[in-house]
Design brief:
Layout lengths: L3 E4 L1 H21 L4 H12 L7 E4 L4 H8 L14 H8 L1 H8 L8 H7 L5 H8 L6 H15 L6 H16 L8 H13 L3 H14 L6 H13 L3 H13 L6 H14 L2 H13 L6 H16 L3 H13 L6 H14 L2 H11 L5 H15 L1 H13 L6 H13 L3 H13 L6 H13 L6 H10 L6 H13 L3 H13 L11 H8 L8 E4 L10 E2 L5 E5 L2 H16 L3 H10 L3 H13 L6 H13 L4 H10 L1 H4 L4 H13 L3 H13 L6 H14 L2 H13 L6 H13 L3 H14 L1 H17 L3 H13 L2 E3 L1 H13 L3 H13 L6 H13 L3 H14 L5 H13 L3 H13 L6 H13 L3 H13 L6 H13 L3 H14 L4 H14 L6 H10 L6 H13 L3 H13 L6 H13 L3 H14 L5 H13 L3 H13 L10 H9 L3 H13 L6 H13 L3 H13 L6 H13 L3 H14 L4 H13 L3 H13 L6 H12 L7 H15 L1 H11 L1
Parallel strand pairs: 2-6
Antiparallel strand pairs: 1-2, 3-5, 4-5
Length: about 1250
């Protein structure tokens, strides 16, 4: 039921009193928990006393009391405009987590670090560069382009790359991107769907005067816009492209043409198609289809000459006109009745008219100008190599009979037979009708014999013609004979008591009671019309005019088949398959569907889900009729498409509706949005959503509920909130229903925090929510492991006298016990028991579970006795919980008692209880008891035998009883129980615990040979055990088997094998194995190569170490500091200091601390290579993040001394001494000597001051002073 709006002032006090009495009973029954319950009691004593509005759950006892004092409120005073935006602002910090961080506060180096997992080599070099060069940006872009096909690069990474690209352009006025950079950037943006950014890039390139080959960029941009349905943007880019002299690719033209035809942009489609033909390229089948669609668009909209010109252009370009092109142009000329121009078209194109085109021409000529001109035109068509078929002659025969030219009709029949064509049955029917019309009824049977002889049996239409013709000729004996023939052929049912003549009248549509055949007995005034075989005068007693009209109409209608009538009849009988066949046949007869028949077909196909694709083809083939359908039919079409999942087709129909200013129903928008949502196409969903919002869409209640669930599933939370607001604005009661649905879906989808904000938002509007709303939120918090929030919500509920739903109470009670809030758990159970009188066992079970989880077995026993005292039959689950609880505290005596109870009560022990019991017994050394228990379990049911044996095997191994496993395996073999994956995995685990390497390897090999998939742990265990035992060959064999099956090699497996190979000196083989892992994509995410990096560095395979480090970064794992230390030390050893600096800088940016050894080694290496200033800067960075050493200072001081940079040397020595390091005497004296021997005599005074300063900080000045004083 829908939540209701009620007033709660009077009922609150009654409920307050009721809860006080109830809580007092709890306190008396649980005196040990008085302190906690007092706080709970306080919550219940703080009830609101003011009148509030509430929507409640009518099914709950508490809410039913509220409804007894229902006070209706004026809802017009409640305003919900802006409600959604308010909720969005209040939970923006939750919603923004999906969108990622803003780039505003990020530096270029931060951005580079963010993309370093894609291009680690390039990124680490650029992190320490203050200003990017165009070549640097190109390096990043080429790295991205290289990785684009190997790994999936998310849109956020491309957005970051685009930000770096822009920042680089802004850092310096003289900066100018390389043309290649612009091309690659545009390509990556297009691949990520960032089309607007590509346009901005192109305009920037143009303003900067950068010249590049932008053909591919423009083509991809047009295809991107066209694929997204943004035709206007695609056309703008196309115009820009042509304006710059670029010719679009054929593929680009095809994509653009498809959307232009869909949108009926005739002139643009003609122009783009012309451009496509200008390229003289060999067109593929899809491109030819696009060309044919343009021809159809032009011809169906009266632009025959443009279509003809396009066909001529195609012919010049080497593209022969297809039958579809010829048919469309011929159809267009036929509609204009311009047959002479049509002949010139065939002559100019040097192509023979197709049969469909020729038949269309014949039909139109006969219809408009008669058979005489049609016959002459046929000769001209034959001169153009037209080859008429049987339907061509049938058309001419039919129209000749219609005009009463039987001689001509028989001439066409003769001509057809001379060409060895089999006459169509319609030709025979037309000739028979013609004979009857001309009174030549005696020859009708000759035609029947002829057609039967040529293998064409008469159909129901033929017999109706015979009936009508003989009735017209008053040959009623022949009529009776014909009726009997129809019965023999199964066309009608004729009983022995039924008059054949009456049956004939009924078949012809005459009333048998109104048409009577009478004998003329009047001598004076004769009414005789005809004589029977005996010479009796007979006449028809009926309305002769109506009679004649009816039989003549049957004859006329049979001369030329009217497919519209035939299709309509089939639609009336819902024979849509037959109707579809008639539609296809109709084309061969040159006839066109009428709008009414077309509409009936579309409606019929839409109502039959098996014919939806037929509707799509029908609308594509006959767009001119589709554009005339009324809005009711088109709404039906869109909804039918969406039900079948054809969302794109539905969008196209909706676009055409809106172009014609037709009204799309709410149900239509809902179907499109729901279809897009279910399909998972977020782009289509957003597009449909925006269109629906612009057209003031408001879904029905049930549709809205389903849509809210779908939106939450797709994480379109803002849209769901806006939908809720619309419902609340237009219909508050319905909106409150949607609120409940949205709240439930948010909590079920992991967005409970947002649900909480939404709940608070409604509370601020003056509503008091029922327990269902709060229960949804509590349930959601528990699902998301936010237990403290769940407990706070529980406190709020209890403070409002709201009892959680049963399932929520059952969920909360064990959680309260787990955090030690036993009193609250007991109180909640008692409260819920009063609310749920019929289902108390689950609440007791929840409390038992909670106590068992915490090992509080005494309380479990109390609860269990309470259950028995109340006469409640404990469920098997409760016994199971007791067993597991006592197993947890290792109370074997109680376990035996409970097990005896199980046996006495003939209860089945659960698998989980068996697992706990077996574990406890084996840990306590009670092996026989464990085996007896296993036998007991095996006797309960055969279905779980293998599971029971697997559990026993696992715990036998785990408790050191591996010697008994062989007996268990023998039992399995005796019972013919085949090992499954679990069995083998447990055996591998057990044998590995026993250090039985050969058995673990054998089990794994057996498992693989039986095509069973081992667990990752089993693979790790066996391979690492083999490597540890020195059996590297077997480990490599297993690795090859894994490679063949495409199984991922995790960190432990790769590390074990590669370290084994390295230990044996097979470095090349180790590298090959690692390379294969990369090539075959067998590396898992979060791979760890830290140990291997160090090993390869120790063996001077520095490049391989760097490769492994890069792979870790690409897989989402940051190597530890020791890996970076090893790499940096290796580079220092090889004197590759620039690379060492790259890694050192990256290390600091990743908040990793270099070791003292690495820092010292790097400082010494820089000094040895004369890069003293860099060494000093490095020392400064070391002081910021770690500890320096005396050797670092001395190395730099000595280097400055060698470079004769005495000032720098003395300054650094001063800093060194401030840090507590004393320089050695040699360094001191050398520096003093250099200063004394300085050749700069003019600065002698200054040098003396410097020398005094140096002696002062060294301790010499003080000594001199003391000596002077002593002297």
């Amino acid at each position: 039921m829908r939540p209701r709006l009620v007033s709660t002032s009077t009922t609150a006090r009654a409920l307050h009193s009721h809860m006080l009495q109830f809580l007092s009973t709890i306190i008396h029954s649980h005196r040990s928990h008085i302190k906690q319950v007092r706080s709970l009691f306080y919550h219940f004593s703080t009830l609101p006393t003011t009148t509030s509005t509430s929507f409640t759950d009518p099914s709950s006892p508490s809410s039913s009391k509220l409804q007894n004092n229902d006070t209706r409120l004026d809802l017009s005073s409640i305003k919900f405009n802006g409600f959604a935006q308010s909720v969005i602002l209040n939970c923006s910090h939750f919603l923004d987590k999906k969108k990622g961080k803003d780039f505003a506060n990020a530096s270029v180096k931060d951005l580079i670090l963010y993309i370093s997992d894609i291009v680690p080599n390039t990124a680490r070099r650029l992190i320490r560069i203050s200003v990017l060069k165009p070549e640097d940006v190109l390096g990043i872009l080429l790295g991205f382009q290289s990785e684009n096909g190997k790994v999936r690069i998310g849109a956020r990474k491309v957005e970051t790359l685009w930000e770096i690209f822009k920042r680089a352009n802004e850092q310096d006025k003289g900066f100018k991107h390389l043309p290649r950079s612009c091309e690659v950037m545009a390509s990556l943006l297009i691949h990520a769907g960032m089309l607007r950014e590509v346009e901005f890039l192109l305009s920037t390139i143009e303003s900067q005067g950068i010249s590049l080959d932008g053909l591919d960029i423009f083509c991809n941009l047009i295809q991107g816009y066209a694929g997204d349905g943004e035709l206007e943007r695609a056309i703008v880019v196309y115009e820009q492209m042509r304006g710059r002299g670029f010719m679009p690719s054929v593929a680009c033209c095809r994509v653009l043409l498809d959307i232009l035809v869909q949108k009926k942009k005739i002139q643009l489609a003609n122009r783009v198609c012309w451009d496509m033909l200008e390229m003289n390229a060999n067109l593929s089948d899809p491109e030819k289809a696009s060309f044919e669609n343009v021809i159809r668009l032009l011809c169906r909209n009266g632009h025959i000459q443009e279509g003809r010109n396009l066909a001529n252009k195609a012919l010049v370009s080497g593209l022969e006109p297809s039958s579809s092109v010829i048919n469309e142009i011929a159809r267009g000329y036929c509609e204009k009745k311009d047959f002479e121009d049509l002949l010139s078209f065939f002559a100019r194109m040097k192509c023979a008219p197709t049969v469909i085109a020729g038949n269309k021409i014949m039909h139109c000529l006969c219809l408009n100008f008669g058979t005489e001109r049609a016959g002459l035109f046929l000769q001209e068509l034959k001169a153009l190599c037209f080859n008429p078929d049987e339907i061509t002659f049938s058309i001419l025969i039919g129209w000749s009979c219609h005009e009463g030219k039987l001689k001509k009709a028989f001439f066409y029949l003769s001509d057809m037979l001379s060409k060895c064509l089999k006459p169509h049955i319609c030709s025979y029917n037309a000739l028979i009708s013609g004979l009857f019309k001309e009174g030549m009824w005696k020859h009708a049977q000759d035609i029947i014999h002829e057609m039967v002889d040529r293998g064409t049996p008469p159909d129901i239409s033929t017999f109706r013609i015979l009936l009508a013709g003989f009735c017209k000729a008053r040959q009623f004996d022949e009529v009776k004979r014909t009726v009997c023939q129809m019965a023999r052929h199964g066309f009608i049912q004729l009983s022995s008591l039924e008059d054949p003549l009456s049956k004939a009248f009924r078949v012809l549509g005459l009333d048998p009671l109104a048409v009577r055949l009478k004998r003329d007995n009047n001598i004076r005034f004769s009414k005789t019309e005809f004589l029977d075989n005996l010479g009796n005068g007979l006449y028809l007693d009926t309305d002769l005019d109506e009679y004649e009209k009816t039989v003549t109409r049957v004859l006329e209608d049979s001369i030329i088949p009217n497919f519209n009538t035939l299709i309509m009849e089939q639609c009336g009988h819902r024979n849509f398959t037959t109707a579809l066949l008639l539609v296809n046949e109709m084309v061969h007869w040159g006839q066109e569907l009428s709008l009414s028949v077309f509409s009936a077909l579309v409606e019929g196909f839409c109502s039959s889900r098996s014919h939806i694709k037929a509707v799509v083809k029908l609308l594509e083939k006959m767009p001119e009729l589709a554009d005339q359908l009324d809005q009711e039919t088109l709404n039906l079409v869109v909804r039918a498409y969406c039900k079948k999942g054809l969302i794109n087709s539905g969008k196209i129909v909706l676009d055409r509706m809106l172009q014609r200013h037709l009204i799309a129903k709410n149900e239509t928008y809902t179907a499109l949005i729901m279809g897009s949502c279910k399909k998972g196409s977020l782009k289509d969903l957003h597009c449909c959503w925006e269109v629906a919002q612009r057209n003031k869409w408001l879904p029905g209640l049930n549709d809205c509920k389903a849509l809210v669930g779908c939106l939450c599933q797709r994480e379109m939370l803002e849209e769901a909130l806006h939908l809720l607001e619309h419902m609340l604005v237009y219909n508050i009661p319905a909106g409150l229903d949607i609120f409940s649905v949205l709240l439930e879906n948010l909590c079920a989808s992991g967005f409970t925090r947002i649900a909480h904000v939404l709940l608070d938002g409604l509370l601020k509007q003056g509503f008091i929510l029922d327990r269902m709303a709060y229960s949804h939120v509590v349930r959601g918090f528990c699902k998301e492991k936010e237990f403290s929030a769940a407990f706070m919500m529980l406190d709020n509920m209890l403070a409002k006298n709201l009892v959680p739903c049963l399932d929520v109470s059952v969920l909360l009670i064990p959680l309260l016990c787990r955090v030690g809030r036993f009193e609250k758990a007991i109180a909640l159970k008692e409260i819920a028991l009063r609310d749920q009188i019929l289902d108390s066992s689950s609440l007791h079970g929840a409390l038992v579970k909670g106590f068992c989880m915490t090992g509080n077995v005494r309380e479990v026993a109390t609860v269990f006795q309470d259950i028995l005292f109340k006469g409640i039959l404990p469920a098997v689950e409760l016994y199971d919980m007791l067993v597991q609880g006592h197993c947890q505290v290792k109370n074997l005596r109680k376990v035996w008692e409970l097990l005896g109870g199980f046996i006495r009560k003939n209860l089945s022990l659960s698998i989980s209880s068996y697992r706990n019991l077996v574990r406890l017994m084996l840990l306590e050394g009670r092996v026989p008891h464990a085996l007896n228990l296993t036998a007991l379990m095996l006797g309960q049911s055969k279905s779980n035998d293998l599971i029971i044996y697997n559990i026993l095997i696992f715990y036998l191994f785990a408790t050191g009883n591996s010697s008994l496993v062989k007996n268990i395996l023998d039992q399995l073999q005796e019972k013919e129980l085949l090992h499954n994956e679990v069995t083998y995995n447990f055996l591998i685990y057990g044998f590995s615990q026993c250090k039985d390497v050969s058995s673990t390897a054998h089990c794994l090999s057996t498992m693989i040979s039986k095509e069973l998939r081992p667990s990752n742990r089993s693979l790790r265990t066996v391979i690492s055990s083999l490597c540890g035992a020195g059996e590297l060959g077997k480990a490599l064999y297993l690795s090859q088997e894994m490679e063949l099956r495409g199984w991922v090699h995790d960190s432990i497996i790769q590390n074990a094998i590669v370290e084994g190979l390295i230990s044996l000196g097979n470095l090349h083989e180790a590298e090959d194995l690692l390379d294969r892992m990369v090539e075959k994509c067998l590396i898992p995410d979060n791979i760890n190569y830290d140990n291997l990096i160090k090993r390869f560095c120790l063996h001077n395979r520095l490049n391989k170490a760097v490769d492994l480090l890069n792979i870790m970064l690409k897989k989402g794992t940051v190597p530890n500091s020791s890996s970076y230390d090893s790499v940096i030390q290796g580079f220092c050893t090889q004197n590759r200091l620039d690379e060492a600096m790259d890694f050192y800088t990256e290390m600091l940016y990743r908040d990793l601390k270099p070791s003292i050894k690495t820092s010292g080694m790097f400082v010494h290496a820089l000094c040895q290579n004369g890069r003293t200033e860099e060494a000093e800067n490095l020392l400064i960075s070391i002081l910021q993040v770690g500890e320096s050493t005396r050797e670092m200072y001395c190395a730099i001081v000595n280097r400055y001394r060698l470079e004769n940079n005495l000032k720098k040397a003395s300054e650094l020595m001063h800093v060194m001494q401030q840090r507590g390091y004393d320089p050695d005497f040699e360094t001191h004296w050398s520096l003093i000597s250099n200063l004394s021997n300085s050749s700069d005599k003019d600065d002698c005074k200054n040098n003396q001051g410097f020398l005094s300063s140096l002696l002062s900080v060294s301790g010499f000045a003080g000594k001199r002073g003391s000596k002077a004083e002593l002297g």
